[in-house]
What does this fold into?
Amino acid sequence: MTNRNSHPPFAAGNWKMHLASGEAARLASEIVKGAADAAGAELVLIPPFTSLDSVRRVVADSSVALGAQNMHWEDKGAFTGEVSPLMVKDAGCRYVVIGHSERRHLFGETDGGVNKKIKAALRTDLTPIFCLGETLEERQSGRTIDRIESQLIAGLEGLDGESVSKIVMAYEPVWAIGTGRTATPAQAQEVHGQLRGALSERYGKQDADCVIILYGGSVKPDNAFSLFREKDIDGFLVGGASLEASSFLRIAKEALRAHKEKP
It folds into this structure.
């Protein structure tokens, strides 16, 4: 197990439903070429399923890892339109995003389904990037922490500390995703600290300190430094800003710069 304090800054680019295979390969190539300028950061590219193979070919033998945006919890079966954990693994992925707010709010994904997917990812030796976050209405009504903790408990149900220590988590306030609004560093740290505390209480400090917790929600080069300086923020799940190599790499470099000033 690697303690988060010794883990390099983590930057994952979620390309969502953008970029056909040729475009994705070109962007991946630019990022691989520029990765030396962000040496020391862990970079992950998460393209659409149809672009996984083209990106895999580009990042092969580089320091850049590959992830998928979603998956089913069954290894095979009559699930038209779905992709299994074994298929994700076969595509060359090390990571898989699970429970992204867009999956929850646009496609009806439930906490129970998220839990099944996390267990399936771990079973297949994939690292889940487990997303959770509150809506604007929940924040305005003072229910942020309650909502986050309920998602945490349901998503990790049935897992022991050793399994939880292998998970990457991403706090993504729904009201900040694709809106241009960003949680302030203090708001993000409050939730990250609460998550870290809840993990420590349920699974013990040693396992909790191995969990990488990312912030996601309109992350840009000009706010990455101030966010990453917060004690419990270990990196970023980047949306729109990851669709340009220069901005994605700048975010990684800002995280590296802030990493030296962590409290």
